[in-house]
Design goal:
Length: 339
């Protein structure tokens, strides 16, 4: 009898130790994640999940945490153009988020997280479905903007614009709780209108973004030049004369430094081959060449130089990050050119 009781006591002690170990691993995994140690956090989340005695709430936390870390790791792989590896990491993230949703079916943030992973994998229909599920649980302008991004990539331009318009309405009603500023939402809607070839509408949105954003962001060496560039190419593609507006914006920009040199090019003050050469420093160099290729192509399209524009657009598709509007827009333009 004593031996049986001793064995039972040992089993209870083992279970308690295993549970404590799982909880300790979960705590350590969260700490590693906060420190940006992705590989270690994934290892510890996996170890925690290996404990069969984790409570459902802790299993949920571990699945959610590991899924988020897999998504972060996928973006690093994307940056180094390891696209198959990135997709594999996101597949792992989707599996974790799906398992977490079995435990807690009414978590809007979790639907958003899985929707983002689907979107990054180019799986736009399930991404949109997840964003829809999240919006049913909690109406959010950020989620509306995220869904619009998937709809834009899918080619559903009207729904993308409608969602961003709804987001703008929500931001106007409660700007402090919106988690996205109106200026950024106008820019996002401008991108959608531009990709849809509704250039006058795009120009109106970019103009609004520049007007709203300039007081706080005008001194940003990147923000205003890029905003001015988008506004100009939208005006140019719409057949609008923006010479005075472009000159005013140029007066607020260092047109001798990238990306301000783009504005100098648009004004005819610099030739394309005279622009600041792209940096050779990894992703930054690609980003500069991406912007230069895309904006130059749009300027050429506005002047009906389709052959040269196609070459620049093809280059943009080669060097732009696949998750950027530049990559998306360049692909759409090439299709319209029959390339």
């Amino acid at each position: 009898m004593f031996k049986v009781l001793l064995a039972a006591a040992s089993l209870v002690l083992f279970a308690a130790t295993a549970q404590a170990g799982g909880l300790d691993d979960l705590k350590a995994a969260n700490a590693a994640a906060q420190q940006g140690n992705i590989d270690e956090s994934i290892r510890l989340f996996t170890q925690a999940l290996g404990s069969s005695d984790l409570a459902p709430a802790d299993q949920f936390a571990a699945r959610n945490g590991r899924g988020s870390e897999y998504t972060s790791k996928s973006l690093i792989a994307d940056a180094f153009e390891r696209l198959d590896q990135a997709r594999g990491f996101r597949d792992n993230a989707i599996a974790d988020f799906t398992a977490a949703l079995v435990i807690k079916t009414d978590d809007a943030a979790l639907y958003v997280a899985r929707g983002q992973a689907y979107d990054l994998n180019g799986q736009y229909d399930p991404a949109i479905a997840d964003f829809d599920a999240a919006l049913k649980l909690a109406k959010s302008p950020v989620t509306l903007a995220q869904r619009a991004s998937s709809e834009l990539a899918k080619g559903d331009y009207d729904r993308a614009v409608a969602g961003l318009t709804e987001a703008l309405d929500l931001v106007a009603k409660d700007p402090k709780d919106a988690r996205i500023e109106a200026v950024d939402t106008y820019s996002e809607r401008g991108y959608a209108e531009f990709v849809a070839a509704r250039y006058a509408a795009a120009a109106a949105d970019f103009d609004k973004a520049v007007t709203l954003g300039s007081p706080k962001r005008g001194g940003d060496v990147l923000w205003l030049p890029y905003q001015a560039a988008w506004l100009h190419i939208a005006r140019a593609r719409a057949g609008q004369n923006d010479a005075e507006e472009l000159a005013r914006n140029a007066g607020k920009i260092d047109v001798k430094q990238w990306p301000g040199t783009l504005v100098a090019y648009f004004l005819g003050h610099a030739k394309l081959d005279e622009l600041t050469p792209p940096s050779s420093h990894g992703s930054m160099g690609h980003a500069r060449e991406c912007g230069l290729s895309f904006f130059a192509a749009e300027q050429m399209l506005a002047k009906n130089d389709n052959a040269e524009a196609a070459k620049r657009l093809t280059r943009a598709r080669a060097v732009c990050n696949i998750h950027t509007v530049y990559y998306l827009a360049a692909g759409v333009e090439l299709k319209r050119l029959g390339k």
